[in-house]
Each structure stands twice: as structure tokens, then as C-alpha cells.
Write a structure and sequence with these properties.
It is a single chain. The chain has about 650 residues and is α+β, with helices and mostly antiparallel strands. The chain has 4 domains: about 130 residues, no CATH class; about 240 residues, von Willebrand factor, type A domain (Rossmann fold), CATH 3.40.50.410; about 120 residues, Immunoglobulin-like, CATH 2.60.40.10; about 130 residues, Macroglobulin (MG2) domain (Immunoglobulin-like), CATH 2.60.40. Helices cover about 15% and strands about 35% of the residues. The protein contains 8 helices and 33 strands. Strands 1, 2, 3, 6, 14 and 16 form a 6-stranded antiparallel sheet that branches. The chain has a 6-stranded mixed sheet with strand order 10-9-8-11-12-13, with helices on both faces. Strand 9 and strand 10 form a beta hairpin. Helix 3 packs across helix 4, helix 4 runs parallel beside helix 5 and helix 5 runs parallel beside helix 6. The radius of gyration is 29 Å and the shape is globular. About 40% of the residues are buried.
Length: about 650
């Protein structure tokens, strides 16, 4: 029996392997040729197989062989250790980036809160937290979605993975499956409504007692069940659309107690078609585990195999029709573990769609080696969809996407200023755009910002129009949001109004508390604005040339007033450190209030004699009235002049 070229000894061993495709450029094809690209996992007793070539695979479409015209073996570089030292901080700058498939694994955890009871939610949260703390690695992208609660959080960095734990711990189940305790299930209500009719006989006389028809009650319950199903499927559609832009393998894990399959709802097939077009497989996990069907701790009957065709018939249909799998194992993370292992090494196979009418095509992928298991889609959708059900313009879709759009490169950062009487902090979202050499005149852009708080509050949205003058340098646009203290995640989208090109980035930041003695976010720059009042020219890049100048401006808030003069008495100093050693420092000096009462400090010094490398600027202030002090540090890098 022939053996695979190489088999990974374990999932962690993947970190030491490299894909031959990492240096390859994805193939291009003439206009009008539909290239179908699918991801294929090959396993040897549950372990991914690497080292195969295109000649080892065979693809048939509707029984006819198709030539493999593109082939990319993907091995994700997985670090040996789990992510996140607890001291991790949010990144100061986020950039629009398109990741190659071998750079990260991607998982979307869909917490179907409308079809999870409080007890099932508890059974899901604890193992999920333990699993993610133990198994996720730096570079893994994990998104958690809870549709009714409005939760959507993506973790990519160490800091974001830390917050992911709090997100999961806050998820709640909303399902009360039998609120009237009459043991009528959704499937029984559906069967009655669809097959027994809804004939209602009125009372025989004016003094008769009203008794609701059992058929009418079943119909009402069935309508409530369909409303819940539409909420779940609508959330699934949004989740699938949000990850469709990833070129590599995408896994969607659906945690739910399941929902019925209704004959008169087209939403099932619409969701399935969207998933097939996006090459997203849905994995259905019932966290209650497999039981005999007898009542559980909450008095409800536990899941059994027969319920996959009855109470969970709709969920099972979506999972199997999208190429996913179903689990009612007592281990709520078993399928997630399998998806994680399978996303560590796989193959991207491309072939040209055969001529014919648009619609579903059956696929079969086999490996010309014995004893191996192949996980691949068993069908795909050819041609454009008949009805375009996209939720809105491309810029609006980009707001909901997890991946970045990079046609317009951009950088995003946040600056924190004063707080209002209600405690909201003025947060400046700064977006830096590089000059486009292909555009000679003024550029007109739309800027869209959507910020979500970690604690599941309402999102904050902002839209504006920008005019970028021609020039040879980057431009920075700013928008002020008023946000509560805490951790936020913002999607920033820029649209060119003439070319329709898009750029977007996902930025996570922490809004500081708006009370007590505090400093604003300092602005560091290599030059000053050409204005009457000197101020640094805002740039997000923190690289400065040796021998150039460095300027810094910041404000002080929360200083106490002297009882006699009714003015603050604040002193400020600075120090430049490298590897913990002071290179340059300025002694404490008083900050005199401006005419409008602001405590504003502008620093400027030369960098002559500074060796290239990483530095920290430490800013310290002391409130002599209140006897309090605070300090912040800002990292920057000096490069050769």
C-alpha cells in the first residue's frame, strides 16, 4: 500500500512545516472563465497529510472529470504555545491587510442564542473558554457571533484573544422551549399546523365558554417557532457573508439546540446557497450531548438521534447541505477541535466550471492513495445568483466583513481627549491614507466607522465625506466619537467615490476612564503645521530619522483648582528611554493655563546623536494642588538618517 508523502505527527507539529505555496502567486485566468476553487483536507487517522501534489487528486463534476488548473498546498505556521501574555495591550495602529491562507486559521463560532436555553448556554461557555485558552495560537482568527444579543467580536491579536474570553463568558441563552409546560414541541406544532389543518369551530351559543382550538394553538406556536428560525438563519447569512472574503479554509461552528425544518420557508435554501458560494461549511453542535431522550436537569428532554430529523431537522439540513458535520457528543468542543486541526493543513484546488446552465453541480474529490480520508465539498453553485440578496452597497458590506479590503491602503489609530459630564470620552478616530500616484487631482472619499463595545451595548456609527488635496505625502482624516470607557472594536471603511475602490481595517482599542488626573493621547510628529499656533502635523507612523526633530503635544485633564487663585498648579517632565536607560530628560516645569483654561504642553527636541533603534517617551505630570501624579509612555523608533 502506498503511503502519503508526509503526515503531521500532531497539530502542534504544524508550526515547523512550511508550504511550498507561500511564495506562489495565485493563478489568473482570462475574463469570462469561471474558476472554482475548493479547499480539500486529507487525513490519515485524523492527522492532516502534507506533501501531496496535484497528480494525487482527481475531481469529477456531475460524474465527468475536471482538470485541476491551480494547486496550492497550505500549511499554516502554528506556534507551539497558546496566545496571550496577560500584559498584552491593544495595538496602537491597525493597517488594512490581506492575509495569505498559510498565515492564519479562521473559525467563526455562532452562538445561536435564540435556540439555546440558559442551561445549554452554560454548558457551552465553560468548555469553550477552556478550549480557546488552551488551543488557540497567535495568528488564529476567531470570531464569535450571537445574533439576537448583537454580539460580534473578532480576535486576531493577543489582546483581542484575552477579550474573547470575556465575550464568551457574557453569552446568554434565550430559549424557553416549552413555556406553557404542556410538552408540545416545535415539531409537533409544525406537524399539526401543516398536516392537521387549522379548522376552528366557534362556540355554539352566546353563553358558551371559549376554548381555544388545539389546532389554532399549534398554529400560533408554529408561527413563533418560524420567527425564531428566521432570526437564526438571518444571523447565519450575515455571518457567512462576513467571512466570504477569506481565500483559505473557513469553519463555522453552530452551537444550538436545533430548529425544525419548515416546508414553506425559503430561507433554508437561501442560506445553503450562500454558504456553498462562499465555500463555508456549517458544523452543528448540540451542547446538551447525546442522551436517551429522558428529562435533563432543567426538566427538558435531552437530545437523541431521532431529534436530528425532527426537532433539529432544519439545523441538520443546513449542516449536511453545506458540507459540514453534526455533533451531539458530550464534548461540546470536539467538532471545533477537528475543525482547528483540519484548518492547519489543506489544499486549495482550482478547476474551470463546465459549460451549462447556472445552478448546483455535484462534486467528488478523491485521492489516488489508499487508506486516506478526504474532506471536500460535495457540490457547488455555478454561475451568478438569480436574485442578488446582498444587504447593501459594497461599502456597507465591508462594514460587516471580518477580512480587510486593501484596494485603498490605510492605517487607523485612536486618540483620547476630554470626557463629558456623562463620562463619555471624546475619541478621535484617525485614518491615514497614502497618496495615490495614479490620481493627479483631488480625491473624494466616503469614510464609514462602526464601533462596537465589548460589553454588548449599542454600536456607534459615523459617516462623512472627505476631500484629499493632491500632493506627495499621506493625509490624515479624523472623526470624533463620544464613547464610554472600556474596550471597543471598530471597522473603518474608506470608499473612493469615483472609482468605487475600497479600503478597510479592523481596529481594537481601550477607552480610558474619564475621571481623575490624566493626559490626552500625545501627538508625536517630525514637523509642525504651518499655522499661527504651532502644533505637530498629525502622522500615525512613529519612525523618525536620526538627526531630525521630534515634536510632542498633549493636554492635561482633571487637575484640581487652587482654592485661592482658582487655577491649577501642574508640573510636567519628560524622559526618553532606550532599553530601560534614560537617554535624555527634561526636568519638571509648570504648565501655565491658556486663555481658555487648557493645560497644553508642546515639546520639541533634536534627535542628533541618537542611535537607530526602539525608544520610549515617558511623559509625567504632577498636580501640586491635589498631590497626585500620573505618567504615560509612547513608543517610537529612530531609523538611519
Amino acid at each position: 500500500m502506498s503511503r502519503p508523502a508526509s503526515v503531521l505527527a500532531s497539530a502542534l507539529a504544524l508550526g515547523s512545516l512550511h508550504s511550498h505555496a507561500s511564495a506562489q502567486t495565485p493563478p489568473t485566468f482570462p475574463a469570462g472563465v469561471e474558476l472554482v476553487r475548493i479547499d480539500v483536507v486529507v487525513l490519515d487517522h485524523g492527522t492532516p497529510v502534507t506533501g501531496l501534489t496535484a497528480a494525487d487528486f482527481e475531481i469529477t463534476e456531475n460524474g465527468h472529470p475536471r482538470e485541476i488548473v491551480s494547486f496550492e498546498p497550505i500549511v499554516v505556521h502554528v506556534p507551539a504555545r497558546a496566545v496571550a501574555p496577560e500584559s498584552a495591550a491593544p495595538a496602537r495602529i491597525s493597517e488594512s491587510t490581506v492575509r495569505a491562507p498559510e498565515e492564519n486559521r479562521y473559525f467563526l463560532i455562532f452562538f445561536d442564542d435564540v435556540h439555546l436555553s440558559a442551561l445549554s448556554a452554560e454548558r457551552t461557555r465553560a468548555p469553550l473558554v477552556r478550549f480557546l485558552q488552551r488551543e488557540t495560537r497567535e495568528g488564529d482568527w476567531v470570531t464569535v457571533v450571537s445574533p439576537v444579543a448583537g454580539v460580534k467580536w473578532t480576535a486576531r491579536t493577543a489582546f483581542e484573544h484575552q477579550q474573547l474570553i470575556a465575550v464568551i463568558q457574557g453569552l446568554k441563552g434565550l430559549l424557553v422551549r416549552d413555556p406553557f409546560k404542556d410538552k408540545t414541541s416545535d415539531f409537533e406544532a409544525m406537524r399539526t399546523a401543516e398536516y392537521a389543518g387549522r379548522d376552528y369551530k366557534p362556540p355554539p351559543g352566546p353563553n358558551s365558554t371559549f376554548h381555544a382550538s388545539p389546532d389554532l394553538i399549534a398554529y400560533e406556536r408554529y408561527e413563533l417557532a418560524k420567527r425564531r428560525i428566521r432570526q437564526s438563519l438571518g444571523g447565519l447569512v450575515d455571518a457567512i457573508q462576513s467571512i466570504a472574503g477569506f481565500r483559505g479554509r473557513k469553519s463555522l461552528i453552530l452551537y444550538s439546540e436545533g430548529f425544525v425544518r419548515s416546508r414553506d420557508m425559503p430561507e433554508y435554501d437561501q442560506t445553503i446557497e450562500l454558504a456553498r458560494r462562499a465555500h463555508v461549511a456549517v458544523y452543528f453542535v448540540d451542547p446538551r450531548g447525546l442522551t436517551s431522550g429522558r428529562p435533563m436537569a432543567d426538566g427538558e428532554a435531552g437530545p437523541s438521534l431521532i431529534q436530528l430529523d425532527t426537532e433539529a431537522g432544519g439545523t441538520s439540513y443546513v449542516a449536511t447541505a453545506t458540507g459540514g458535520r453534526i455533533s451531539i457528543s458530550n464534548d461540546a468542543t470536539a467538532l471545533l477541535h477537528e475543525a482547528m486541526v483540519e484548518s492547519s493543513a489543506y489544499y486549495l484546488l482550482g478547476f474551470q466550471s463546465s459549460p451549462g446552465e447556472p445552478g448546483e453541480r455535484k462534486l467528488k474529490v478523491r485521492v489516488r492513495r489508499e487508506g486516506l480520508t478526504v474532506r471536500a465539498p460535495d457540490r457547488y453553485i455555478a454561475g451568478e445568483p438569480v436574485n442578488d440578496s446582498r444587504p447593501g452597497p459594497p461599502a456597507v458590506q465591508a462594514l460587516g466583513a471580518v477580512s480587510d479590503a486593501a484596494d485603498i491602503p490605510l492605517r487607523v489609530s485612536t486618540l483620547f481627549l476630554d470626557a463629558s459630564a456623562t463620562g463619555e470620552v471624546t475619541t478621535t478616530v484617525a485614518v491615514e491614507l497614502e497618496q495615490d500616484a495614479a490620481v493627479s487631482g483631488e480625491r473624494h472619499l466616503n469614510l464609514l466607522v462602526e464601533a462596537h463595545p465589548l460589553d454588548r451595548g449599542e454600536p456607534v456609527r459615523d459617516t462623512s465625506e472627505l476631500s484629499i488635496p493632491p500632493g506627495d505625502r499621506s493625509a490624515v482624516a479624523t472623526r470624533d466619537l463620544h464613547l464610554r470607557p472600556g474596550v471597543w472594536q471598530a471597522r473603518v471603511v474608506v470608499r473612493d467615490m469615483e472609482t468605487e475602490r475600497l479600503g478597510s481595517a479592523l481596529h481594537t482599542f481601550e477607552v480610558p476612564a474619564g475621571n481623575g488626573l490624566r493626559l490626552s493621547s500625545p501627538i508625536l510628529a517630525a514637523e509642525l503645521e504651518a499655522s499661527r499656533i504651532p502644533r505637530p502635523r498629525l502622522r500615525l507612523d512613529r519612525h523618525y530619522r536620526s538627526g531630525s526633530a521630534l515634536y510632542c503635544q498633549y493636554r492635561v485633564f482633571g487637575a484640581a483648582l487652587d482654592a485661592t487663585t482658582q487655577h491649577p498648579r501642574v508640573r510636567a517632565s519628560y524622559a526618553i528611554l532606550r532599553a530601560g536607560h534614560v537617554i535624555k530628560e527634561g526636568p519638571p516645569s509648570a504648565i501655565e493655563p491658556t486663555s481658555d483654561g487648557q493645560l497644553l504642553r508642546l515639546l520639541g527636541f533634536g534627535l542628533a546623536g541618537f542611535e537607530p533603534g526602539d525608544y520610549a517617551l515617558v511623559l509625567s505630570v504632577t498636580d501640586d494642588v491635589a498631590g497626585k501624579s500620573c505618567a504615560i509612555d509612547e513608543a517610537f523608533t529612530i531609523i538611519p538618517g
